[in-house]
Design goal:
The chain is α+β, with helices and mostly antiparallel strands. 26% of the residues lie in helices and 23% in strands.
Length: 87
């Protein structure tokens, strides 16, 4: 039986499958000076999430880790600014 040849007009179908990820529940509190509607955008590789504030939300563990690391670095930056007298 003859195979059908692919032409340039027929792109290959690409299916991206992600392995089952561990989901964790996080909570982003409402903050003074941050609009209630202001959600947090997080991107990991070719995926992205918009996480609402003031609600418990389930996200992949990698997203929770990125948020945690971001908060740690913000604290370090604040401590550094205080140590050199900027604040």
């Amino acid at each position: 039986m003859a195979e059908k040849k692919k032409t340039a007009a027929e792109p290959e179908e690409i299916v991206l499958e992600y392995p089952k990820e561990e989901m964790v529940e996080i909570y982003l509190p409402l903050e003074k000076g941050v609009d209630k509607q202001m959600a947090l955008y997080v991107g990991v590789n070719d995926r992205s999430w918009v996480i609402p504030r003031g609600k418990r939300t389930k996200v992949p563990k990698c997203v929770a880790e990125i948020i945690e690391h971001s908060e740690e670095e913000a604290i370090r930056a604040m401590e550094f600014r205080q140590s050199i007298g900027m604040e």
